[in-house]
């Protein structure tokens, strides 16, 4: 296990290095730089001084070496688009709202989704199953943006049940200000409900037909006992594969929901920094996401062994 | 240079079509000028509401820095003009005319030759109790011109003696000592604490309008030094001298302004708190405005028509005014145009006369104005409003051709023959580059393609590039005949629109222009620089405009911008300066 962990750790470093390098050169290959929009309309002398100020007049390889050296010390460089900000400062100010929204969305979405999945599997072929399937398809087909806008217009705007926009801050950053979070959480959780209910249902139906379920039934176990001890536990393998990815994804923000409800989160920077070719922020985000994902994949591998002892790592069969 | 209002930021991102707007519709917009300017509540006999707080939408992502010298975006100006006080303040008078009101300067004298401006500052204070002195303006002017800072609007000091020499210094070759010496040499002097003397290189009446821009508002070097790296981002390191102070800021989300009790005119500032909040979705803004949660809204796209026709309720006033922006086509004049025809004046003129501007603005946008000149409505030259006095130069030519296809084709063909090109018109392909694949952009691209193909019998190849960077690459490589752009004036003077075609301008890179052509155009600028009298300047501006759109056909102007705002009837006293902030709420109040 230790050998495996150490190997995985070095693989992780290599992966991150490769990703950072690829990101750098891909961005260098794409036309445009963070200043080009702004500098296009400036007099020539100011334009040249501006490029010099940000070191963008240097050759690509030289910039690559400077960037990589900085990264080794955790310094991704100052954003060109947002003076005074680097990735750490940006995360510090914007990650908390995104993380809270993500956690709430996951808890509600996955919780309800799993519950519906169990119901659909247990009442397979009944009207309940059909209703759940119908709504799952509906929820996954309608974009988050539409749910967000509709809920906002009717539930907040016309009925006035919740604030139209806003997000708790200060002492209420993590707990409190719940009224602000209801609609954003609802808008975000639909896709999780749909994904997880369908996933669990399919997986459970596979397991239900296994011989050991038949054996459990033959032993005279009650239906809830069979579901809890035998079916659910074995059905969770695909969920364990997907769930950590969902969490990693949700924690780093939702572009649309944050936009609609004016939530000061991290989601918007994934789009904006690429549009503006803001290299230091893009690199920071890429490396951050790579770390999260690589770590999650590692975690999933460990979790497998806990859930299902038949899966072993480290080469021993 | 160009101010990035958010409409024109779109132009920067998607240079193909300069302005966002709505599609369809039929009625032409009725023009009403922005409502009359600041009036005190007493004068109208109205009752003030107890709670003097408002909320406005504000595109927070375009707010980059609290450093007023470093600013370049409209959203930054919106804030700075309310928390700082410069020499003069752009606003409107009671009749709704655009004026530069005395602000930090109580009054100013201009010498007879138009070269020396002496500003007499009033006694007013920063929020930490330090008096605002003439030296703070000297520091600001020198700092914005310092080439090491590379501030976007450094050229705003270009009219001042030593200004151009300072901001054009090459930071690679100039030593720090050279730069410091050039800063000392800048002809801006604090004669005493309250007297500021500025000497211009040429009589440049537009200078006063530039002084009204927040870039040239005062700065405190001691505060900047103490703040260090945090000066850009941390409002708590700042001091203020305007009607409001900043009391809260969430990056890319919101800003809170509260009344500055030590402001020199605090008795006429009624709002106690203004929340500027970023609401990206227009539909959300609409919901909030209807619920009375926003003081004003800038409707765009499909929202313009319902607001204009009163479908959104009756508790707001609809304001439709001029805006200093022009949209135009330019030509590849680098001698390498795809068709090889862009060197012919007749070919360019035929393309300019072949489009129906009235129909375009009406069918595609249902707003904005058809443009037959390069200087938009409302731009002032001293006391004179340029467009009121000078007929649009393309109008007569356009009427003479009257969209007659035969005549237009003959003109185009004549131009081709002058270049020694004997092809038939049907064999000619013109490459038109642009960006943007939204419905409204597609509609524009289709409209132009169809207009030129029908009128001239040629083929138009529309090359839509993925984003502005790809567009620039194509443009800079010269793989096009005609491109599309937009331009907003940063100050209120026709110079803001003609200067771009000179050697100092940006068209050499931005609009297919060449150094040679620019040098030809410089003669107009030289004459303008020697002419302090507005009437004399107006004549020269008219000649310059005639040259741009008719004699030389450097560009095909097709549309002037406008501004549309809806203001809640609960809010009075808000003004909408032509340049500067979009909303001036410094003297606004909420009625009971």
From TrEMBL, chain A:
<dbReference type="GO" id="GO:0055085">
    <property type="term" value="P:transmembrane transport"/>
</dbReference>
<feature type="transmembrane region" description="Helical">
    <location>
        <begin position="130"/>
        <end position="155"/>
    </location>
</feature>
<feature type="transmembrane region" description="Helical">
    <location>
        <begin position="101"/>
        <end position="123"/>
    </location>
</feature>
<keyword id="KW-1003">Cell membrane</keyword>
<dbReference type="Pfam" id="PF00528">
    <property type="entry name" value="BPD_transp_1"/>
</dbReference>
<feature type="transmembrane region" description="Helical">
    <location>
        <begin position="281"/>
        <end position="307"/>
    </location>
</feature>
<keyword id="KW-0472">Membrane</keyword>
<comment type="similarity">
    <text>Belongs to the binding-protein-dependent transport system permease family.</text>
</comment>
<dbReference type="Pfam" id="PF19300">
    <property type="entry name" value="BPD_transp_1_N"/>
</dbReference>
<feature type="transmembrane region" description="Helical">
    <location>
        <begin position="236"/>
        <end position="261"/>
    </location>
</feature>
<protein>
    <submittedName>
        <fullName>ABC transporter permease</fullName>
    </submittedName>
</protein>
<dbReference type="InterPro" id="IPR035906">
    <property type="entry name" value="MetI-like_sf"/>
</dbReference>
<keyword id="KW-0812">Transmembrane</keyword>
<dbReference type="InterPro" id="IPR045621">
    <property type="entry name" value="BPD_transp_1_N"/>
</dbReference>
<dbReference type="GO" id="GO:0005886">
    <property type="term" value="C:plasma membrane"/>
</dbReference>
<keyword id="KW-1133">Transmembrane helix</keyword>
<feature type="transmembrane region" description="Helical">
    <location>
        <begin position="12"/>
        <end position="30"/>
    </location>
</feature>
<feature type="transmembrane region" description="Helical">
    <location>
        <begin position="175"/>
        <end position="194"/>
    </location>
</feature>
<feature type="domain" description="ABC transmembrane type-1">
    <location>
        <begin position="95"/>
        <end position="304"/>
    </location>
</feature>
<keyword id="KW-0813">Transport</keyword>
<dbReference type="InterPro" id="IPR000515">
    <property type="entry name" value="MetI-like"/>
</dbReference>
TrEMBL record, chain B:
<dbReference type="InterPro" id="IPR000914">
    <property type="entry name" value="SBP_5_dom"/>
</dbReference>
<dbReference type="InterPro" id="IPR030678">
    <property type="entry name" value="Peptide/Ni-bd"/>
</dbReference>
<feature type="compositionally biased region" description="Polar residues">
    <location>
        <begin position="29"/>
        <end position="47"/>
    </location>
</feature>
<feature type="signal peptide">
    <location>
        <begin position="1"/>
        <end position="20"/>
    </location>
</feature>
<feature type="region of interest" description="Disordered">
    <location>
        <begin position="26"/>
        <end position="47"/>
    </location>
</feature>
<protein>
    <submittedName>
        <fullName>Peptide ABC transporter substrate-binding protein</fullName>
    </submittedName>
</protein>
<dbReference type="InterPro" id="IPR039424">
    <property type="entry name" value="SBP_5"/>
</dbReference>
<dbReference type="GO" id="GO:0030313">
    <property type="term" value="C:cell envelope"/>
</dbReference>
<feature type="domain" description="Solute-binding protein family 5">
    <location>
        <begin position="101"/>
        <end position="505"/>
    </location>
</feature>
<dbReference type="GO" id="GO:0042597">
    <property type="term" value="C:periplasmic space"/>
</dbReference>
<comment type="similarity">
    <text>Belongs to the bacterial solute-binding protein 5 family.</text>
</comment>
<dbReference type="Pfam" id="PF00496">
    <property type="entry name" value="SBP_bac_5"/>
</dbReference>
<keyword id="KW-0732">Signal</keyword>
<keyword id="KW-0813">Transport</keyword>
<dbReference type="GO" id="GO:0043190">
    <property type="term" value="C:ATP-binding cassette (ABC) transporter complex"/>
</dbReference>
<dbReference type="GO" id="GO:1904680">
    <property type="term" value="F:peptide transmembrane transporter activity"/>
</dbReference>
<dbReference type="GO" id="GO:0015833">
    <property type="term" value="P:peptide transport"/>
</dbReference>
